[in-house]
Hints:
- Helix content is about 70%, strand content about 0%.
- By secondary structure, the protein is mainly α.
Amino acid sequence: METLIEPGLGLIRFLQTLGPAAAPLMHLFSFLGSIGFYLALIPFIYWTLDRGIALRVLLALMLTDCAGTTAKLLLHEPRPYWLSATGLGDASAIRAMATEPSYGAPSGHASSSFAVWTYLAWRLRRRWIWTTAIALITLIALSRLYLGVHFPHDILLGWLLGACMLYAFVVAEKPVSAWAARQGTSTLIGIGAALAAGVMALGLLTQARLADMPDPVAWNAHAANARSVAHFFGIAGILFGLVAGRALARSRFEFETHATWSRRIARYAFGVIGLLIVYFGLGLVFAQLADRESIAGLLLRSLRFAAVSLWVTLFAPALFIRFGLANKLGRRSPS
Length: 335
């Protein structure tokens, strides 16, 4: 991809002529394409609007993110600001306005934003949602170029990956959903565990594939953790919690999302507080137990993200019903 580097650097330099005044807005757009933002948005949809759409968005996001992370390792391409010490391309004028520990191509922000926002627009079928989706996909991509963390070809590869994953997801959605609805709880939990184990294995095998392919020494200051498989283990945990949580919740803790907006907002606020306690609480505890990149640390990371996913799909809904923030499905609200 070296032939694409110099034209890409030229576009980045052009965008950075917008100056530092544009940086706050670009950081905002970049955040709107991050996994952290989606993991705040999806519980909102799940707890207050539509469980089915939220579940499908999360599943599409995790599968796309897994494919993108695998592609990043296999391609092991640099980010623009990594090149300042390599002599490859005229990178000296590129300002690094953000930093990333992973490789550059394909852009995870581009693939995830394409998959999430296009799926939402396709499912909801509203013109204003399509307009919003296209605007966000474009602005998120431009923000990543402006910040100096992606080349244009990283973005294009990300969009292509997002489109392919979304197409495969939409094709498989109905038959897989129908099949899953016929399965028992223990079967679904076993499938969730197998799916998680498969993602972990994929990460380890992909990492091993790079063992004899060292990066240029000049990248060392930026790429020290680029070959980490921690992200795979986080995805594995989320997928297991999603499948297992839904399997356990569907018979006892299904709730009506419809309610007054004051009740929905209270539900979301309560759920987010619990989510933050689980996420940061387990993060602090597990950090004391094992190094992040050790096998124990990776498994604890997976457990942490599984707990987050279980909170969203199982424990929070159970508490919503218990404390009167939601009605159990099929039960009338008290008059």
